[in-house]
């Protein structure tokens, strides 16, 4: 703290050997050791030039970014970390969104979008002092956003060097969901991604491969997902090019929804489980939600006047927030919460995962109207 050690405050030092033993993987090397080795090599590259880092989910990206932040801030340096979405920003150390960090409005960025940052403002001072700028989930940004960032940094640093000669790290995974382009077809989406930004050529590309979340017996499934994401699965002549065959060993052969629910949530149903079932269509989601909510052994409470007309909840059920309320407390679009108490105009809940896990929050009834002019409903 402020350049001083724990010993100076007569505080015990952490047992690093014990910490390493807690995360020993099946090969005998600790995950901390593997990540530290990777960090050392990538940090050296990042100190020399900009870095574009890619890796599948579970490969340690978030851990790496927060480690960069902790190490550099511990050395008295300034680090700016931001994300393309609010839910991603909650995973970062003092993270914020791209728009709020660089004062870029409106949310739809075009080729002519500029920043509202004044040269003598506090954020401009932070940018000038920053030793490292990290962009999380950069794959969800448009090429116009990356171009706007480049212009901002050159303007504040008062030079014409790429990104104002600041060290910038872009992180993400192109195998996951890309950005959403309103009414955009496949070609429009591809045109808009940051891979088509000319400024991306200024970045060194690094890749993470080891999945830190893989448990014993699931490596084959993880490898198959990577092959699928890379688009290198073998083609089956009898199937359309847009159809893939999922190996039988990854399927629940019983076609009943009850079997799927038991597999994911246990039997009997585990209250406050953080597992989830991903549905491609809303009608499937509603059907499965109704089946699950009936298994929760509590009284049902129904809230009306929302887009689907009825929201059915029970104490112990899990719900997902659909509105950005307070990103500093982790209340963003996509935040998952456990229901603890249901009242007429407020819900008491606990954040289920992430940096704010365990935080108790009150969710009031809020009147909402969509920004999209094509949608005319009003919900509360």
CATH superfamily of the domain at 7-207: P-loop containing nucleotide triphosphate hydrolases
Q: What's the total number of strands?
A: 12
The H-and-E topology, N to C, reads as HHEHEHEHHEHEHEHHHEEEEEE
The helical percent reads: 25-40%
Give the uncertain stretches in residue-range form. 16-34
Name of the level-1 CATH class of the domain at 7-207: Alpha Beta
CATH topology of the domain at 7-207: Rossmann fold
Q: Determine the number of helices (DSSP H or I, runs of at least 4 residues).
A: 11
Outline the biggest β-sheet.
6 strands, parallel
**What is the gyration radius calculated from CA atoms?**
23 Å
GO biological process, one term: DNA repair
Domain DNA helicase Pif1-like 2B: 305-342
Enzyme class: isomerase
Keywords: ATP-binding, DNA damage, DNA recombination, DNA repair, Helicase, Hydrolase, Nucleotide-binding
